[in-house]
Amino acid sequence: MPQGQPSVVPDDGLTTRQRRNRPLVFVHTGPGKGKSTAAFGLALRAWNQGWPIGVFQFVKSAKWKVGEERALTVLGASGEGGTVDWHKMGTGWSWVQRDRQLSNEEAAREGWEQVKRDLARETYRLYVLDEFAYPMHWGWVDPAEVVEVLRDRPGNQHVVITGRNAPAELVDYADLVTEMGKVKHPMDTGQKGQRGIEW
Amino acid sequence: MPQGQPSVVPDDGLTTRQRRNRPLVFVHTGPGKGKSTAAFGLALRAWNQGWPIGVFQFVKSAKWKVGEERALTVLGASGEGGTVDWHKMGTGWSWVQRDRQLSNEEAAREGWEQVKRDLARETYRLYVLDEFAYPMHWGWVDPAEVVEVLRDRPGNQHVVITGRNAPAELVDYADLVTEMGKVKHPMDTGQKGQRGIEW
Question: Is residue A48 part of a domain?
Fold first, then answer.
């Protein structure tokens, strides 16, 4: 139950309205569950505002997130809220030619190149860069470049980045960082992933 | 990127299949953002499985969660996945007579009584008890009774409970507990809540 009351009023020369509508960068990191799930929950609010949403899934497997993908696709096509474009690395990015064989590293970089193009064109109002912390953590995409591109992005574009081990530069730059801590997980006691819960 | 590999195989006499389809209790607690958002994200997966979903919002204000409510209501009515019933304490539970004036404490108890009835009848496959940690924390609903009801619930019903300060009995009993830690929040630097982001 957030109270909506800031604890400090900054001396930044902005009006309340300008400050209120500031484009934000969110990072959901940490070992616990809920990082991506909370990002897709945020997409529901964006959809309700009628915002165009771009999801970029930086994961190899196409198995995960099928529930979220179908739900957001149905919502995006319902004509009642915003639109949703769902881009998947796992089955090959749609803008990459089918006959090009990409390593995971190359595929992650191709994804990031497209995000840069879309940010420059202001294609979306909300970007969900799902599991994008991994390619940065693995050194495939330079976190310093990501921060620079985010800092210079035009207009009013919100960006959510998920994944464990978000790099320090990104955490320092982000407006909102949530660390999902694992307190208890059924897999610790032998519970396997199940349909409707894990995917 | 969960690997789906349990770290321990328990000696509980259950088959893998029985263990896999075990009904689960989730708790999303802690001071950070994403507790409710992740619960609604989970509801997207449940919807995709065609499960009936019951959301019980244990909050006074009807302002919050409007995006999630509209999105899940549109999904529930789309005929493509599960159904969604959205119950709100803030505007008065639908099963409580309009002319009855309830205190917050009474209203929270009425909500819990309905959850108990629905669990007994197996009305839903997924229950989102949003902000339900508060009435327990405040002593309005007895956590020991909640644990008892959850332990004895019939069938295959999953329950997600959100809110800060989840009581210890519930955390001990739950299958999955995620503590959302606040690393950084824009309100700390004077950013006010904004449309599409906070609601």
Answer: yes
Beta bridge partners of B161: B27, B129
Contact across the interface for B68 and A181, Cβ inside 8 Å: no
The pLDDT tens digits of the residues spanning B99-151 come to 888 899 999 999 999 999 999 999 999 999 999 999 999 999 999 999 999 99
> CATH number for the domain including B53?
3.40.50.300
- Tell me the chain A residues in contact with residue B61 when contact means C-beta distances shorter than 8 Å: 1
CB-CB neighbors (< 8 A) of A174 in chain B: 184
Q: What's the number of domains chain A is made of?
A: 1
Which of the residues B3, B178, B188 would you substitute to probe the A interface, choosing the one with the greatest number of A C-beta atoms within 10 Å? Answer: B178
Write the burial class of residue A181 (CB in 10 Å: 0-12 exposed, 13-18 middle, 19+ buried): middle
Q: Under an 8 A CB cutoff, do A8 and B189 touch?
A: yes
ipTM of model: 0.70
Q: Are A166 and A136 in contact (CB under 8 A)?
A: yes
Query: A175 vs B195: CB contact, 8 Å cut-off?
Result: no
Q: Which tens digit of pLDDT belongs to each residue from A140-197?
A: 999 999 999 999 999 999 999 999 999 999 999 999 898 888 776 665 655 566 676 6
Cross-strand partners of A84: A53
Residue B99 domain-assigned (yes or no): yes
Q: Which has the closest alpha carbon to A179: A25, A41, A30, A36?
A: A30
Indicate whether A15 belongs to any domain: no
* CA B181 distance to own-chain centroid: 18
Residue A193 domain-assigned (yes or no): no
Give the range of the structural domain holding residue B149, as residue numbers without chain letter: 26-162
Q: Which residues pair with B86 in a beta bridge?
A: B55
